[in-house]
Amino acid sequence: MSRPSKGGASYRAVLALPHARKLFAAAMLARLSYGLLGLPLLLTLKQATHSYAVAGTASGLFGLVTALLGPARARLVTRRPRALMALAGAYSGLLAAIAVVGAAGAAPWLVL
Q: What is the pLDDT of residues 5-35, one digit of tens each?
């Protein structure tokens, strides 16, 4: 692999590796939902609780837990690739539960 003069591998060199472009595109597509989740989550919870404070706290807690559990999730998927499907199902279930709570107009303690 060619290296630029400063010693680090360039994106061009990495993406030239076999199958790297497909893997990179799949990873980008899979992580797209992380950036798109914040605003709909906040607005759904605000509509359910009628409070931006509760909705912001719940959204912040969701982001914090996601960030804190990220390394453990990555280790688990690396060691046991089949766990990815279970994690994806759990993530989808959690988002569905949040949608149900939002539609039902739940109490703030339930949202948190």
A: 565 678 888 888 888 888 888 888 877 877 7
